[in-house]
Task: inverse folding
């Protein structure tokens, strides 16, 4: 049923003729691996140029990109990594796989992202890194976070998976931190089907990323604990074509998102996610909050009856997810989750997770609704949606 709803996430993606030609060329050349091909390197150069960064290393997903990024900056046993309590769970996997300790910080009431104010209370002498996700496409307030990271000598990693093209202080997100990670899964602002990229500032980090991406082997010698998370030439060919279309696609997203946000601000008592002063939203998703006390599930149902899709993206803060509950009760699943719990058996974090109640994370989880903005979403869809909401939750 939901396939027929406006803004349902079932819309098919359109891949251009140049993507098709690029894929065919790679196939006919008979070289689909990065080891032998040229597309991946060309895509990395195109992407670095677009971001205004020096080095980009293409990988198999945003998740592996985060994993590599944390390994590259040296996160390991006993190191704490600060992440938002309300974000995509992939960040947690990356920290735990690197044997780091997740420390949750609250989010800003307007941008719903980490800020210097929310992170500072969680910084300790064990903090190794902060991972800031620019959630749903809204940039975090980066200048304060950069200053905080410098002041404490910690690494700043930007998770730009949902925010390719968002800006703050006239710079693209991804250019502030030590490392930035992007995802090209199929609901992102550009897609390679699956895929991701890691953007770094120094030649040393780029070299380390490339080594870890391909087994951590060099000259037949195993040098480190590596991954195999290369992007294929087919994906890179699609990426080059998608990147060329990105500015046009992002302009449409921005028109739709800013128009809908301003209509909700004026015509309803809903609160759209806000962008810090001087920033621009990449609108991978359009997300808004119902007034506390209003019933978001009921509104979602009423919208569905009118033909619109709006659901929760993350129904609860991550620290309430099963993994954390299982850790708290001492009963995690076998394998890494169990081993990790044993390694940190005497650490006070388990008690901290059990009692965690971050005010804004809880509030946003309770009150938000949203949808993925797709390339087929139109301004008139946005207007119809705003008309419906003005009738249901007037200002
Ligand atoms: C904020 C965020 N970070 C990381 C990821 C992981 O990206 P991927 O699906 O490419 O592994 C996602 C995926 O949706 C995401 O939304």
Result:
């Amino acid at each position: 049923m939901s396939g027929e709803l406006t803004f349902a996430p079932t819309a098919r993606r359109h891949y251009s003729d140049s993507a098709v030609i690029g894929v065919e060329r790679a196939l006919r050349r008979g070289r689909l691996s990065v080891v032998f091909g040229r597309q991946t390197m060309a895509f990395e150069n195109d992407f670095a140029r677009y971001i205004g960064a020096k080095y980009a290393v293409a990988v198999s997903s945003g998740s592996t990109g985060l994993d590599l990024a944390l390994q590259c900056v040296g996160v390991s046993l006993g190191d704490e990594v600060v992440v938002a309590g309300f974000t995509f769970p992939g960040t947690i996997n990356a920290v735990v796989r690197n044997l780091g300790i997740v420390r949750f910080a609250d989010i800003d009431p307007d941008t719903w992202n980490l800020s210097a104010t929310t992170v500072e209370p969680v910084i300790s002498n064990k903090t190794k890194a902060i991972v800031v996700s620019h959630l749903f496409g809204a940039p975090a307030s980066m200048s304060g976070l950069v200053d905080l990271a410098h002041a404490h000598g910690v690494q700043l990693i930007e998770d730009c998976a949902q925010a390719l093209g968002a800006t703050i202080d006239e710079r693209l997100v991804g250019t502030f931190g030590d490392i930035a990670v992007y995802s090209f899964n199929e609901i992102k602002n550009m897609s390679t089907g699956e895929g991701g990229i890691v953007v770094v500032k120094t030649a040393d980090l780029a070299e380390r990323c490339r080594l870890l991406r391909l087994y951590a082997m060099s000259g037949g010698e195993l040098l480190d604990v590596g991954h195999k998370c290369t992007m294929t030439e087919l994906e890179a060919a699609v990426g080059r074509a998608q990147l060329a279309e990105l500015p046009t696609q992002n302009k449409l997203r921005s028109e739709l998102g800013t128009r809908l946000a301003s209509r909700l601000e004026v015509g309803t008592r809903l609160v759209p996610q806000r962008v810090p002063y001087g920033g621009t939203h990449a609108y991978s998703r359009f997300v808004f909050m119902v007034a506390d006390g209003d019933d978001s599930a009921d509104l979602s149902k009423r919208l569905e009856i009118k033909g619109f899709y709006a659901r929760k993206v993350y129904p609860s803060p991550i620290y309430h997810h099963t993994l954390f509950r299982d850790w708290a009760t001492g009963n995690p699943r076998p394998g890494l989750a169990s081993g990790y719990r044993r390694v940190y058996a005497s650490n006070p974090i388990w008690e901290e997770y059990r009692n965690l109640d971050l005010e804004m994370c809880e509030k946003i989880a309770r009150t938000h609704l949203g949808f993925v903005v797709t390339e087929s979403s139109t301004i008139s869809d946005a207007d119809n949606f705003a008309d419906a909401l003005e009738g249901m939750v007037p200002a």
User: Anything to note?
Assistant: The chain is about 40% helix and 15% strand. The two ends are 30 Å apart (CA to CA). The longest strand covers residues 127-133.
